[in-house]
Structure formats: structure tokens, C-alpha cells
Amino acid sequence: MSSTRIEQLLDTAQAAFDRRPTDIETGLNVSDAALLQLRKACRLLAGAEALQEQDYYTLVIEASFVAMERTVEFRLLERGTIEPTDLPGTHPGVYREAASAGIFDESVANDLADLWRNHRAKTYYQDGLAAAERAETMYALAQEVHAFVVGRSSQRHECLCK
Predict the structure, then answer these.
(1) Do residues 73 and 35 touch, judged by C-beta distance below 8 A?
(2) Computed from CA positions of residues 126, 127, 133, 137, in that sequence, does the dihedral angle turn out positive or negative?
(3) How far is CA 155 from the centre of its chain?
(4) CB of 159 within 8 A of CB of 34?
(5) Which of 27, 39, 54, 90 has the largest CB neighbor count within 10 A?
(6) Residue 42: what are its φ and ψ, rounded to 5°?
(7) Quick one: how far is CA 28 from the chain centroid?
(8) What pTM, to 2 d.p., does this model score?
């Protein structure tokens, strides 16, 4: 099976990523890898809030999980615990690294990893259904994780959240 249109759009997308970017999203044009992760987390939270208002619960849940991961990666990079090329390669790996670095207690990190394993994948890929309560609680959790982690940073003034 082949589609000429898909092939054309695939080539166009690849070329867009191969070119030096212009018209970069406001706030993300930073050279520091830690700040980039922090600000991506801020944008994910802002996006989750906007999507929550439109009842797009699957996207809110997904963005909330990713925002927590970007926030943890910010702190790991800021503290020099990892290098930009060594970011954890798995979602649960982010929480293991957070526990190892003392960002969270091991029990909290394990619970966050379990939440991801047991519910994110089920919601996104399997038979779990996204619902308002699930989206609201995930968004609240992501906001709290972000505030907790960023609040312990000397660079908290770089946070784009309101």
C-alpha cells in the first residue's frame, strides 16, 4: 500500500526538521538544556489547561504525564545529575532517576512510575477511558509536581507558568 500524498507530506515534514528553525515558539529559544525542559513543561501545563476547558481528557492526561517528566528532567539537568545526551530513555526511568537524585522519595517516585505504567498506557492505548475526573486529577498532580520541583530550584524565576 502506498500513497503519493503521504510520501510528499513525509518529505515535506522531514525537510522542515532539517532546516534551521524560524518563528520559534515564544519562551523556548534558550540555549540551556535544563531551561528548555523547564519551559517545555510550562507549555505542556498551559496546553493541558486549555485542553481541559475543551473536554479533551485524553490529551490532558497525556500532557500532564509529559509535563511531569520534563519538569524532572529540568531538575536533573540543572543539578548536573545527567547530561542532555543522557536523559532517561523510558518514562518510568525518569522517576527512577528522580529518586536516585533525591528529587522525590523513592516511594513517591515508584508511585508515579506505577501510575504511568498502570494508567497512562491503558488510557492511551488500551481499554481505559479518559474521563473528566481522571483528567482533572492528573492535571492537578502535574501542577503540584511542577511547583514542588521548580520551587526548589535557583532558576525558578525562569518558569513560564502564571
Answers:
(1) no
(2) negative
(3) 18
(4) no
(5) 39
(6) -60, -45
(7) 14
(8) 0.90
